[in-house]
Amino acid sequence: MNHFLRYVMARLLFLFCLITLPVQASISLSEYGALPSVGMVAISPNGDLVAFRKVTGDQDAVYVVSIKDKKLVFALDVSKIQPGGIYFFNDEQLFLRVSQYTRVKGFRGKFDLSTAFVLNIKDKKIRQLLIPGDKILAGQSGLGHVVGITPDGQYALMPAYSQIDNHFPKPNYSLYKVSLKRNHIKPEQGGSYHTDDFFVNREGKAIVQEEYDERNNEHKVLALNNGKWIEIFKEITAVKNRSFVGLTADYQSLVMLTDDEKTGRTSYYTMSLKDGAITGPLLGRDDADIGSVITDMQRVVYGVRYSGFTPSYHFFDAKVDAKIKAIQKDFPDQAVWLIDWTPDWQKVVVRVEGSDYPEDYFLFDSANQASFLTSGRPAFKPQDIHLIGKSIYTARDGLKIPTLLTIPRSKAGSLKNLPAVIYPHGGPASYDTVGFDYFAQALAAQGYLVIQPQFRGSTGFGTAHYTAGHGEWGKKMQDDLTDAVNFFTSKGMVDPKRVCIVGASYGGYAALAGGAFTPELYKCVVSINGIGDLNAMLAWDKNQHGSSSEVADYMAMQFANGDVDKKALEKMSPETYAGNFTAPVLLVYSADDKRVPPKQSEQMLKALKKQQKLATALELKGENHHLLEGETRTQALEATVNFVRQHLQ
Q1: Does the pLDDT at position 22 exceed 80?
Q2: CATH number of the 417-429+441-533+573-647 domain
Q3: Would you state the pLDDT for residue 400?
Q4: Secretion signal: which residues (predicted)?
Q5: Distance between CA 94 and CA 297 in Å, rounded?
Q6: Inter-axis angle of helices 599-610 and 534-545, to 10 degrees?
Q7: Conformational region of residue 481, where left means phi above 0, alpha means psi within -120 to 50, and beta covers everything else
């Protein structure tokens, strides 16, 4: 029996019978825009339980299910905290990472307050682990970070800013032991104001501190040697270019990801905790970056995940490596994401996405036999998913631009003269992958070819491809999108008279830049939380994070390769050229956006109206930069699709 037939049969049986598959003639825009019904799947260390978050209508709950008995153990309403991540601390306790935009007493405005909760499976009680103002600094965020667990399983090791006193006018970023059983925390290791991260050994003791001094651009690593903290690494850099991501299994070295000068790809290195000696590059490939590492709760590295339109993996343990590769072979041409596993790797949970799978979860046992667990999108059958293809075109200066295409199923047999949507990703230091992109799928459902170029400045395709975008906003990066239109038009796939551009975040800037700098190309422009004025954006970042902050330095590198000139940024700003627009514009923006302020869209609308251009705006109340609320992101999707439909008749 082939993998696809097994998949269909599994969906009909549905292991837990917790979600039904509705019978329907077509998929509505609200179903495209809805949050996945199921996500954040985790498996207990003993492999007996599976937990996941399920969102249906007004209900938002964490479910725990017995694999052996195939029955629900319990469900808990989490609508008030809306978790963004779930995993098992142990067989009896769940970790829930939460992020909310909310107000904090004594502080102005709203904050993205990430924190953590522990859920006891036996008594079904939930409790917050770190509370701002309770022995730690009030008003802080970033409290959902766990760097390890004590050997007895009683404490989570979590960093937080300490309270300010007369001796320390600035808060120190310190490591705390946080009880998983009761309301109790105590300091484990003091840090400094510049401390960024901690790494701990198998006994739960801090052995590494990472620091970054934004004012002096000093990136440091301190290691504990014979009871004393010594500096084993120091680099002066405005933007950190080395990522310290874990420890080797013997706890003698730190794992570092950085660029290999020979291949131009992100590779794996180790740094000795004894003397800072660096070994590597290791595990590097000349056709992919190392995107991330696979670790346990003590951050010991088991293997790596490589970049690409679909992920690939390498593990140090040959048996684990063979197991994961065999799983991937069961789903050819799909993206197989490693989600969770038991410590012995006998059971593995994966999420599969692609032209045949709408975010489906599978459990593989010790014999590598698959069981279908659940679907993130039970309303979608395989035939409802529009096909995802890959292409490469050459930009005008010779740079190769990898590209994803979402192809309407009804047009798959004849890709000729189609209406199209250019859909650049955000970041721009990011890249698209094969998967269920609800915007791309919803647009393809209207009959549009959706084109996602991985323009210069995208990550995942090597250092040279990424750095080629520095200082090229509105210039070569925009040329790459223009060249995409021209390439697919020249191939007869796209009707040049029926092209729109849609994007969010950086993609929103690119959409506006398309309307401003190449107005002849597009019939409509949709910018979601996009940037119209680069000078105002840079000033806002400096105000929010500090003029010498890494964020400000990073944006200066993005906008101008570090050499900021206000007149040059003005020329790269779509708002400056509002008079050039010929296509109608839809501006969608989030009221609680802390990454790109709403004023960017408001001022862009004002500039377009002043030039008597056809422009409209939609404010998403209570939404943030990333469109994480089902109701408001459906609003954004419906407005976008209807707007594009109106102008691509």
Answers
A1: no
A2: 3.40.50.1820
A3: 98
A4: 1-25
A5: 13
A6: 160
A7: alpha
